[in-house]
Amino acid sequence: MRPDFLKGVRFTDLTWAGAGPFGTKVFSDFGAEVLKIESMTRPDSVRTAGPFKDGVVGTNRSGYFASRNTGKKSVALNLKTEEARRIVIDLIAQSDVVTNNFGPGAMERLGLGYETLREIKPDLIYLSMPMYGQDGPRANLLGVGMTISAVTSIMWHTAYGPNDPVGPGTHYPDHAANPYHGAFAVLAALTHRRKTGRGMKIDLSQVESTANFVGPALVETSATGEEIPQVGNRSRTDAPHNIFAARGDDDWVAISVAGDAHWQALARAMNRADLLDDAALASASGRLAALERVEAAVAQWTRERDAAETAAALRALGVPAAVVARSSELVQHDPQLAARGYWQHVQHPEVGPVLLSSPPFTIDGERVELDRPPLFGEHTQQVLHDLLGMSAQDVAGLEASGVLS
């Protein structure tokens, strides 16, 4: 199902790598026409990043690229050439939205800054997604998702303890905060334009956007002047709250006791009357004070049991618990994802069937049917002919001169 709201909406998409393409994917999945401008002179970094289908490296074989670019049209343009830049301007003139995640000044150096483009397309919606925004004392600093996780203190809050900044990789900046904040802003701008006829410039700082994930910690630190302790998978208010080894090879179960009733149910499931009768453990504060002893008891119990059986038994008693699933288990065995049709196979012309994840929501109970990701430059001739009226001879000349590379 695709909403009528996005029918006829066209993007000229200059984003690359993670957060930008994942954000424009929201629109291509739901019916907008997204023209992905790319060049082999500076390929999208995720086209050259694995995993590759069957372990064979290739421009069109990256699963990383496929998962971020479903439904888009690939237009090969070498922006190092003046002619390619003119073509991009002509495409933008026929588009509703232009997007980029370059550093400040990059679009201006290409002749594609907002002030230039608004003269050509007055109602243009222009989304820019630099690390720190377009201005300010740190605007010229560059970074990627891992950098943003460090700068916004996500690595601090996900560390198991002091000097252990393992972090969650690029997941929060590149796949949650920034793409969806960017998509929400564009949706708001499209609504605004339909009401007023006016376009909008959106300056989305990826650092400011990602900082939303640690909002409560920022408020607490500001109010108390104290650093938030690093507790890993534990909780500062509840216990036990951790991941425990289960029977098997690297199998784990997550258990979250969020109240005294949960603790009593867990102690009964463990058949530990001694813990249940211990008045010192009756409250969360008492369990936190004796945390090592409490966790040791739980770990001894879980280590002798199957992770899935443990999680199911505790959930039946009302205790929050779940298997710490491998990727393969999420694809093959997760009942919630299966029931919602989250995984989809699409047919790819070079690598065959590809398994992809759907957007994490439905519309009126229906899930969008994904289109495949594009081959590099697959739609170049079509777009130049249909939108710009170029002949086959025109296109051949551009190819010969290196413009379409």
How would you characterize this protein structure?
The protein contains 19 helices and eleven strands. The protein has about 400 residues and is of the alpha/beta class. It folds into two domains: about 5-205 and about 340-400, Crotonobetainyl-coa:carnitine coa-transferase, domain 1 (Rossmann fold, 3-Layer(aba) Sandwich); about 240-330, 2-Layer Sandwich (formyl-coa transferase, domain 3), CATH 3.30.1540. The strands form three sheets. The chain has a six-stranded parallel beta sheet, with helices on both faces. A three-stranded antiparallel beta sheet has the order 7-8-9, with helices on one face. The chain has a two-stranded antiparallel ribbon with strand order 10-11. A hairpin with a 3-residue loop joins strand 10 and strand 11 (about 350-355). It is elongated, with a radius of gyration of 25 Å.
Output the radius of gyration.
25 Å
CATH superfamily annotation of the largest domain: Crotonobetainyl-coa:carnitine coa-transferase, domain 1
CATH architecture of the largest domain: 3-Layer(aba) Sandwich
Pairing-aware structural class of the strands and helices? alpha/beta
